[in-house]
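Hi support team,

I submitted a single chain yesterday and got back a structure, but I'm not sure I'm reading the token output correctly. Could someone confirm the output below corresponds to the sequence I sent? I've pasted both exactly as they appear in my results page.

Thanks,
R.
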Amino acid sequence: MTDLRPTDGRELRNRQIIQSITEFAIIVTDRDGIITDWNTGAEQILGWTRAEMIGRSAEAFFTPEDRLKGQIDREMMASLQTGRGIDERWHLHKDGSCFWASGEMMPLLDEAGEHTGFVKVLRDRTEQRLAGEALEASERRYRSLYDAIDEGFCILDLRFDDDGHPIDYRFLEVNPAFERQTGLKGVVGQWMKSLAPGHEAYWFEIYGRISRSGKAERFEQFANELGGRWYEVYAYPVGDRSDGQVAVLFNDVSQRRHDIQALAESEEKWRGLFENLEEGFILGKVQRDASGRVVDWRYEEVNDAWGKLVGIEPSTVVGRTVRDLIPGVEDAWVNEFAQVVETGQAIRFTRKVDTLSRWYDGTCQPVAGDRFSVIFVEVTERVRSEVRSKALLELSETLADLDDPDAMPGAAARIIGKALGVGRVGYGTVADDGETFTVPSDWTADGYPSLAGTYRMDDYGGYAKNLRRGRTVVIPDIRLDPRTSFNTDPLERVGVRSLINHPIVENGRTVAVFYVNDDRVQPWTAEEVAFIQSAANRTRDTVERRRAEVNLKTSEERQRLAIASGEVGIFDIDLATGSLTWDDRARAAFGVATGHLVGQAEKLSTLHPEDRATFDAALAAAMEGAPFDLQFRTIGLDDRQVRWVNVQGQVAGSKGAQHFIGAVRDVSQRVAAEQRQTVLNHELAHRLKNTLAVVQSIATQTLRNAPDMTTARDSLTKRIQTLSKAHDILLSGQTDAGSIDAIIRSAVALHDPDERIALRGPSIDIGPKAALTLALIMHELATNAVKYGALSVPEGRVHVAWVVDIDETTKLPTLALSWREVNGPPASPPTRKGFGSRLIEMGLSGSTGGSVELDYASDGLKCRIRASLTELQADDA
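Hi R., thanks for writing in. Yes, this is the structure output for that exact sequence:
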């Protein structure tokens, strides 16, 4: 028991000692556990101050669980019974967090030896507690791993001879897997040579080296004494280097070594088969972007046949992607193989690699992961043969469906060009001189130039003589063929690197040439040449046969029209009886329906009243022997349509038996054209007269107000240009009106290279005269803005706007147009008025109720013009 009875200042000294202790929390309580003293150590460890805790129960720093169990009462009872209560448990800080404390509780006695309370001493041992728990957990995990791993583990104690050479080792510790991996039992404390006397010396040497060097090693080694096993080993030193101890983690890899050997033998077998395959083989792996989408694939393996079929050295392939190896390869070569990997479904394909000009047929199958395999053969010639056969069939059907012989060569060229995959195919005729070669049109691939035109055959190589002799010319590369290599420029300028020219010979002379061109070297095959010859001859025969048919039909039709038509009607009038015989064209000229019997009165009613007297006079003269040749108007008897006709004829026969025989032709269209031309001539004269008047006025006013000839010349030139542009706007639409927007843009374009003049308004057309006036006004306003106004400074702008509203006085639609300058210098009235100023003030003159307002404001000139829209849109406005 603790005696804290006061004697000669002893209590004071005890209190001072207690308060000076900071590593321990010392708490003094009464017999009921109420705190009576609280030292500095308690404040630091528990967090409460002395003032906060005096008078409170000591249970305050016990956990809720300990309070429920009455832990403080147990400790008090134990201290009373044994003199002290010792324990370790969790206690509370002021902030509610816990700490692990080592504590002791003792009873306090007064001077008489009576029990007066308790003293509780605590020390914070949280760090040691947590470290111990972590160590225990680590040991448990290590032991669990140690016991559970499949790999064998042991710790060895090396034995060295007097010269320091390792000669044996003893097992200090092994895990359960050790026995399974080695077949050895009860080895702890045993030396290896006693267990396996013939154990290979290199095992001792390796472990000795690791022990001496202090460096871990990883290796594979054979142990014959342990059942002829191979082991994969990781060994590392443990403890002090002087201890000579090594830890070994190992695994029996005998089966794997056996499998590798078997695989190597199998691979050797299959490699021989693989390399001797005639089919190409690919082992590939797809390449993905960040989102996981397949964007390419990489070659992991190819065989020798692959190189022969593709034309690329196999040794340069592995590790490269298909897009890198074959630039421009079609997306389908990536997408379909990606589909095989994604779906796990094999596919069969027949497809062309365009940049290689080769076709391939094969299968693609999924392999593990992102890999796939491909076995394929080249089928270029087979595919091309099928394409050529289909093309000849299509050619025959197409030529049979065409009626126009001139369209046949173009159709044939298209079919042949697409079948061969070349740049250009055409058909041209050779003139009688054997030199002039004319191509009316040809077929070309996208972006390939046409040869349509006329040429000299000798300008394109030394093979012209072969064509003249009827020999087909086949040149795979013009740079290598002696007939063209001396000068390839003329051919290469028109996209020719390889060619086939097939002559068409008739009556011993070359009359046409069917040509095939490409801008790539083409190793033309005999089958391709035969295909072109067959197609060319078939086309020529069909063209000539169809042309003969068309010529015959045209000749027959021309003969029929000459007899039956000719646009001339024939008539015969019996002047004695009035009977009329006429054909359908004559009936049509007089507007009489077929089958309508016309009497004498009706015949006369077809004459236009204004031309009746002229007709009667001409007919009377004809009856006296003069020829009848008259142009007059008729009114259709049935359709009431007015026509102009020309009648030529004569009166034949004797008195009493005379016939008026002649021909009639409808000339209404010709007369209408002549009338329109007359109107146009009058209009042109009117326009020219008005334009000359405007030019004269501009010149007079400009010269009168110009200070010198240079200024006069410049002003006059610009105004005439503006007038010219206004005329262009009127003429460009083939109408007599011009758009306000177009007129203003044209008039100010010269002064607005930076587009600082903004236009806004509805689309409105105005007449010629108003258009010219508006153009001149806009030109003058723009000129003044450049010289003195907003356009004379960089920040200046001009806003031009127009609207149509109803005039309050006239109640008619009125055009209101405004010119507003901003961000320019202040505007001021001119000191004198020249032609430009007067022109602006006149406005769109001639319009009823028109007005002009000029406001020379400090923020820029404002001009407002109003004019009657109806008058502005008039033809003479």
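A quick pointer for reading it: The chain has six domains: 2-129, 149-255, 278-378, 383-555, 569-666, 706-872. Let us know if anything else looks off.

Best,
Support desk
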